Structure formats: C-alpha cells, structure tokens
Q: What sequence folds into this?
C-alpha cells in the first residue's frame, strides 16, 4: 500500500513557487487520515520547511475534499534586498 495517494490522502498541499520553477503538489500520508486536519497540516509544514522548495515558494495552499482550507504566503522581498546589498 502506498504512503501517499491522491485519491486516498486527506490533505492536498499545493506549493506555488517563484517564477521559472514548477509548482508542486504533495499529499498527506494516508496513515494520518484519522487525525485532525490542523495536525496533518502542521506535520506537512514541518517536512516542507526542510525541503529545497521552501526557499523558492510564494504560497502554500491546503485542500480537503477539493476545498481550500488554509493558505500561507511567504515574502522574500527583504531577504532579496539584503542579498543584493551584501554583494556590493
């Protein structure tokens, strides 16, 4: 039995990346389907923070039964300015 499956997983996480990068979709582990959605989202976010995608993401959206239930936006404007200033 697969760990993740788009037809059996409770939560779908859509990762909307910055320009020129492909958006990604992650599915929650099937064994977490009985947990509260908030707990599943929290554990998915912890795994996401360790992913290389974290640094190139603008928005993360969470869906349950094809309904948007949560969304997080990331701002990189300040870190971009700091990187530009330190290079001069």
A:
């Amino acid at each position: 039995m697969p760990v993740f499956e788009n037809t059996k997983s409770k939560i779908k996480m859509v990762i909307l990346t910055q320009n020129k990068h492909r958006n990604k979709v992650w599915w929650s582990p099937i064994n977490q389907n009985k947990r509260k959605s908030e707990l599943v989202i929290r554990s998915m976010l912890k795994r996401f923070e360790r992913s290389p995608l974290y640094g190139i993401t603008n928005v993360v959206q969470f869906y349950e039964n094809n309904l948007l239930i949560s969304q997080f936006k990331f701002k990189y404007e300040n870190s971009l300015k700091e990187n530009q200033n330190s290079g001069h």
